[in-house]
Amino acid sequence: MKRTVTPDAIGSPAVGAVASPEVHLMTLNVRRRVAASVSPADLWSRRAPLLARLLAAERPTVLGIQEALPDQAVVVADALGDRYTCVGTGRDADRRGERCEIHIDGDRMRFLDMRVHWLSDTPDTPGSRSFGNLLPRVAVQAEVEELEFGGRFHVIVTHLDHLSEKSRRRSARFLRGIARSLDGPVVVMGDFNGGRRSGVFAELTGDDVLVDTWGAAARRLSPEWGTYSRYKAPVVGGDRLDRILVSPSVQVDAAAINPVRFDGAAASDHEPVHAVVRWPHPEPEPSPRPQPEPDSREDGDSLR
């Protein structure tokens, strides 16, 4: 049975900064700025400072954002500060428009490479679309190295189509294929526009290539809120359109959905989703056992 709570009953942060070797993953659909907002709650001028407060409180190690226009992406970067680095792109042919981005804590990690896939039959062609979506859709992929341990992992951030089920399923199948092809732990996160019983979720988790961190978590730090509240009070048991998925080998210590409200106002029409994970670091090679020194004592010598 679903229940609702008043927005002011929700606190922040859900996770906050974590220490190595734990990694705080966070994904958020920022909600694009529009000229004619659907309500006062949707005004970007009202939401921008709330988003900055949210990010300052959470301090994720790895952040994936979706649906941010270039000026909104600047607000995200400014809120995180100079310590963070970012890769990403807009979805249009000129690489502008709504962006998907990956932000990482530069004190702990560095990017090794990145690439962009347009979710179509020609994924290397900017602005291409052929899966059934009217608008271009992208996935941003990066390989990241941990500075302390030297371990590497892959992150993919995406925003699937909101209208076409065919596009969502084909995009999810494409992303699962990428995840299968990569060496090492993989994180796939974003707004998938499909709930637990949708075809897109079945495609993403098929063949045990990826698992949902919410189901794999040792601890859940929040109720299972729906992630698309449209600025209304959050609902327990609502559809989780936004997810963080990982390789099955990744240890998921905790998961959370944080419908944070600041004086009754939300930073986005989507709720941020969080996971605290540890990568499967290989065991160090055992050191060779020291060999005993040759005994050079004469017969009859004794130790004193």
Automatic annotation (TrEMBL):
Keywords: DNA damage, DNA repair, Endonuclease, Hydrolase, Magnesium, Metal-binding, Nuclease. Its cofactor is Mg(2+); Mn(2+). It comes from the Bacteria. Residues 268-304 are annotated as: Disordered. Pfam families: Exo_endo_phos. Residues 26-270 form the Endonuclease/exonuclease/phosphatase domain. This is Endonuclease/exonuclease/phosphatase family protein. InterPro entries: Endo/exonu/phosph_ase_sf, Endo/exonuclease/phosphatase, TDP2-like. Residues 280-304 have a biased composition (Basic and acidic residues). GO terms for molecular function: endonuclease activity.
